[in-house]
């Protein structure tokens, strides 16, 4: 196993950029990546020189969701859902605004990160899908941050069907803040400049206002959603769904 960090930090003019850099599994939410990202977010939130956090990625995938290869291992850590929930809470509770830069694909649990972020900018190559139902799971933990943000009718459709949708559709339903038609970094410039121009204490207080409903959702549904996620992961249906995905075949129930 590589010892190189899966999350890299660089700082520029008050913005701490945290880059997901786990190309071997498309930046999937492995136990190690979650641990590293939670730690880096915590450090950035306590850094007086940081005005905002930029969450970005290498490769063509922002985040593929939970690490399915890890999830189907016989010694899989059953604390995975709780660990993911704590990561989402860390983003929501951070006094520093967290901006997501999505230049590629976001799937399943990876979209939960976007629900937790304060601002999400997606590029023209970005795509989104809640793929859990197709592998015998449910979008349980991510629902705590996504449902307060997204149009309810759209949530019903995309949660239930697992369809892929574009950045423009993600903006329409409230999942992302803006869908850049051309250069993503150009679209991000006024957002980051605006955060740099804000007074730190006022910025933290204002973030608390805008994240209050998301935080209530996380706290209210934490136990129920983590229990549901853990229970479904242990079913025969999920084992077949995960295996079929990794083996690139149709699951037994597909017609």
From TrEMBL:
Gene Ontology molecular function: any one: catalytic activity
Similarity remark: Belongs to the enoyl-CoA hydratase/isomerase family.
InterPro entries: ClpP/crotonase-like_dom_sf (IPR029045), Enoyl-CoA_hydra/iso (IPR001753), Enoyl-CoA_hydra_C (IPR014748), Enoyl-CoA_Hydratase/Isomerase (IPR051683)
Protein name per UniProt: Enoyl-CoA hydratase family protein
């Amino acid at each position: 196993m590589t010892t190189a960090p899966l999350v890299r930090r660089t700082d520029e003019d008050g913005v701490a950029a945290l880059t997901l850099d786990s190309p071997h599994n498309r930046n999937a939410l492995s136990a190690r990546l979650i641990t590293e990202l939670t730690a880096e977010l915590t450090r950035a939130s306590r850094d007086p020189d940081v005005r905002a956090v930029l969450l970005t990625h290498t490769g063509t995938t922002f985040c593929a969701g939970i690490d399915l290869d890890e999830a189907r291992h016989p010694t899989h850590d059953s604390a995975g859902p709780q660990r993911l929930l704590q990561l989402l809470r860390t983003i929501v509770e951070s006094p520093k605004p967290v901006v997501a830069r999505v230049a590629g694909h976001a799937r399943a649990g990876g979209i939960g990160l976007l629900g937790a972020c304060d601002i999400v900018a997606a590029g023209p190559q970005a795509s989104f899908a809640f793929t859990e139902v197709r592998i015998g799971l449910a979008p349980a933990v991510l629902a705590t941050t996504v449902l307060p943000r997204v149009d309810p009718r759209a949530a019903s459709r995309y949660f239930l069907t697992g369809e892929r949708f574009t950045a423009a559709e993600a903006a329409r339903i409230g999942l992302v803040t803006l869908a850049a038609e051309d250069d993503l970094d150009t679209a991000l410039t006024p957002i980051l400049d605006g955060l740099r121009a804000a007074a730190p204490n006022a910025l933290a207080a204002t973030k608390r206002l805008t994240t209050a409903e998301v935080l209530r959702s996380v706290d209210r549904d934490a136990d129920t959603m983590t229990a549901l996620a853990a229970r479904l992961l242990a079913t025969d249906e999920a084992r077949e769904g995960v295996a079929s995905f990794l083996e690139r075949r149709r699951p037994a129930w597909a017609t």
